[in-house]
Design a protein that fits this description.
The protein is an alpha/beta fold. It folds into three domains: 2-21 and 146-251, Glucose Oxidase, domain 1 (3-Layer(bba) Sandwich); 34-140, Enzyme I, Chain A, domain 2 (Orthogonal Bundle); 261-532, Phosphoenolpyruvate-binding domains (TIM Barrel), CATH 3.20.20. 49% of the residues lie in helices and 14% in strands. It is built from 22 helices and 16 strands. It has helices at residues 22-25, 34-63, 65-79, 81-94, 98-114, 119-140, 163-168, 187-195, 206-209, 231-251, 278-284, 296-299, 308-322, 357-363, 365-378, 394-413, 431-435, 437-440, 451-459, 477-492, 510-516, 525-536; strands at 2-3, 5-8, 11-19, 154-158, 174-179, 199-201, 215-219, 224-227, 268-273, 290-294, 326-330, 383-388, 424-428, 446-449, 496-499, 520-523. The strands form two sheets. The protein has an eight-stranded mixed beta sheet. Strands 9-10-11-12-13-14-15-16 form an eight-stranded parallel beta barrel, surrounded by five helices. Helix 4 (81-94) crosses helix 5, helix 13 runs parallel beside helix 15 and helix 14 packs across helix 15. The radius of gyration is 27 Å and the shape is globular. It starts with a strand and ends with a helix. The relative contact order is 0.10. The mean pLDDT is 92. Bound molecules: phosphoenolpyruvate and magnesium ion (MG). Magnesium ion (MG) is lined by residues 389, 429, 450, 452-453. It catalyses: L-histidyl-[protein] + phosphoenolpyruvate = N(pros)-phospho-L-histidyl-[protein] + pyruvate. Keywords: Coiled coil, Cytoplasm, Kinase, Magnesium, Metal-binding, Phosphotransferase system, Sugar transport, Transferase, Transport.
């Protein structure tokens, strides 16, 4: 059994597919058992030989002996005492993992062959690389980047998943995922909750503990993985799964109930989305609008920046589907753990404290304006509000508003419709903004507290780092004080205050937030019904 940080609720029973990146595989690792490392290497060599034998026979039958000869030379390399000896002695001399030594030996052979004049010898470099990759895959019992055709009931196991990796998961096949690193508010964990698939993060070395094809149980509630479970455990978890689903069904009765406390205070329970189509999940789960549209996901998984037209269509779609319900759209929050392949970003020591979100947008005004124009145009089709992320001072908000006003002027000149009185607000996710909330409240229409970042900045505890997750405490008195200050400051100016960090959907935090007077709770679709239930019963 292995334990990690429960990141997305639910149970899954299925088979492991390891998703391992080459650079993650070939890190140097100290070993303490030389014999077992040598045995691992021998096993990988034998498997590689068997595979090549089969491939050679097939090639001979289908393409003739001359075409099959290349595999013969690959097999010869596997039996070459110098090649294999170099790997073995490297492992022994340095007491490190075979993968790392294999890579070094292959690199050395490749550079020797590459430097030769003779074309035939140059070609040998490719053969060595090919054989090296084969041994590496067998050494790890893992596929490399390519996870290929997935079977049903797949549990993805990875060192880490980027937000875009997670967004790409095929939900018809992938029933859960596990990662070595990460915390509850890493974007991969947030995505898992949106996808409503169980996930456990911060598992330490799960990629070394399981193999491809292992049969496992994932308990996304307790954060536990059971590898090769007994019949009894499988039955027990099948039962838990049925109960969990039944409970979810029962909660669905609240979907169309307006959220009010027992005392009659109206509270808005809304959803966080990453793509326009996610509004359906929010509505199905009883969401009363959207409190956070993370627009950066529109910018991911593509080669070029989305155009104004593409963005307009996406925002308009969400606005129309929400049919008058509030839709808070956050402007581009790129940087931190979210990168774009086509937008060069500087290498930074502390990307979460660096060039990201509003800082980047205020610096790259052309890029910002494309999004603002699209947002304004979409505001003609629903109850759309614009929210700026990572605001740390009044000055930044005023600058953003100034650019927004320029966009309004441009659209007016072009005769394009937009809602002239649309609300603009900010995320309170930097401690300086929470401390200065009384000043900021005079300028904005609303606040939304981004606790995912606010907690990490207040407590100096990286939200992605499982090693400090014990410090990352939403209920820390310092965090609670900042939250209370922010809500009070908004109310003093007659403005509303929401929360779109994961804390808003945390069942243990909801009663406290209600008591503080929070007006709007925005969360992953999968958390909405339970939050509604707590509020209705309060
Ligand atoms: C937050 O920081 O709380 C938040 C909602 O934004 P993100 O998780 O996208 O940083
Ligand atoms: Mg944030």
């Amino acid at each position: 059994m292995k334990k990690g940080i429960a990141a997305s609720k639910g149970y899954a029973i299925g088979n492991v597919v390891l998703k391992v990146k080459e650079e993650e595989i070939i890190v140097e690792r100290k070993i303490d058992n030389l014999d077992s490392e040598k045995e691992r290497l021998q096993k990988a060599l034998t498997t590689s030989r068997d595979q090549l034998e089969r491939i050679k026979d097939k090639a001979e039958a289908e393409m003739g002996a001359d075409k099959a000869a290349v595999f013969e030379s690959h097999m010869m390399l596997l039996d070459d005492p110098e090649f294999v000896g170099a790997i073995e002695s490297g492992v022994e001399a340095n007491m490190i993992n075979a993968e790392k030594v294999l890579k070094d030996v292959v690199d050395m052979y490749v550079s020797i062959f590459d430097s030769m004049e003779d074309e035939y010898m140059k070609e040998r470099a490719a053969d060595v690389k090919d054989v090296g990759n084969r041994i590496l895959n067998n050494l790890l019992g893992k596929s490399m980047n390519d996870i290929g055709e997935l079977k049903n009931n797949t549990v993805i196991v990875a060192h880490d998943l980027t937000p875009s990796d997670t967004a790409e998961l095929d939900k018809s096949k992938v029933i859960a995922f596990l990662t070595n690193i990460g915390g509850r508010t890493s974007h991969s964990a947030i995505m898992a909750r949106t996808l409503e698939i169980p996930a456990i993060v911060g598992m330490g070395d799960i990629t070394d503990t399981v193999k491809n094809g292992d049969f496992i149980i994932v308990d996304g509630i307790e954060g536990i993985v059971i590898i090769n479970p007994t019949e009894e455990q499988i039955n027990e978890y099948n039962l838990r799964k049925v109960e969990f689903e039944a409970e979810k069904e029962e909660l669905k009765k609240l979907a169309n109930v307006e959220t009010k406390t027992k005392a009659g205070r109206r509270i808005e329970v809304v959803g966080n989305i990453g793509k326009p189509e996610d509004v359906h999940k929010v509505l199905e789960n009883g969401g009363e609008g959207v409190g956070l549209f993370r627009t950066e996901f529109l910018y991911m998984d593509r080669e070029t920046m989305p155009t104004e037209e593409e963005q307009f269509e996406a925002y308009k779609y969400a606005a129309e589907k929400l049919d008058g319900k509030p839709l808070v759209i956050r402007t581009l929050d790129i940087g931190g753990d979210k990168k774009l392949p086509y937008l060069p970003m500087p290498e930074e020591m502390n990307p979460f404290l660096g060039y990201r979100a509003i800082r980047l947008c205020l610096d790259q005004v052309d890029l910002f304006k494309i999004q603002l124009r699209a947002l304004l145009r979409a505001s003609a089709f629903g109850n759309l509000k614009i929210m700026f992320p990572m605001i740390s001072s009044v000055q930044e908000f005023l600058e953003a508003k100034k650019i927004l006003a320029e966009c309004m002027g441009e659209l007016k000149a072009q005769g394009k419709a937009f809602n002239e009185s649309l609300e603009t607000g900010i995320m309170i996710e930097i401690p300086s903004a929470a401390v200065m909330a009384d000043e900021l409240a005079k300028h904005v229409d609303f606040f939304s507290i981004g606790t995912n970042d606010l907690i990490q900045y207040t407590l100096a505890a990286d939200r992605m780092n499982e090693k400090v997750s014990y410090l990352y405490d939403p209920m820390h008195p310092a965090v609670l004080r900042l939250i209370k200050m922010t809500i009070d400051a908004a109310h003093k100016e007659g403005k509303w205050c929401g929360m779109c960090g994961e804390m808003a959907g945390d069942e243990t935090a909801v009663p406290t937030l209600l008591e503080y007077g929070l007006d709007e709770f925005s969360m992953s679709a999968s958390s909405i019904l339970r939050a509604k239930q707590i509020i209705i019963n309060s």
